[in-house]
Amino acid sequence: MDIFLTYLKAFFVGGLLCVAGQLLIDYTKLTPARILTLFVVTGVVLGALGLYQPLVDWAGAGATVPLTGFGNTLAKGIKKAVSESGLLGAFTGGLTASAGGVCAAVLFGLLTALLSKPKEKK
Predict the structure, then answer these.
(1) Helices marked H in 28-88 — which ranges?
(2) Total domain count, the chain
(3) Which of 1, 39, 75, 104 has the fewest CB atoms found within 10 Å of its own CB?
């Protein structure tokens, strides 16, 4: 039963983040690119302030998989790198912390492009 509750919390939080994005698309004039950027920046700010981690602890993948989770990862990486390397860490920490996820996204994007049959838009 405990694993079911974990999945339910992740689904609920991830779903709420998706609903927020859909509402922004439907009721504002923001472009999808600006909404995605807004989500990442929101994750960075909430992560830097320490407000996002309690949500991650409670919801797990429901909070770490969406773009707000990517922003939180960037903030955590920068905090860690600044404490270890000083000001230089502000420039390298986010890249170091998110390198695995970015590499996986590029790799799976490449595999999808190689294995799929593209069609022209009409």
Answers:
(1) 32-48, 53-59, 61-64, 67-85
(2) 1
(3) 1
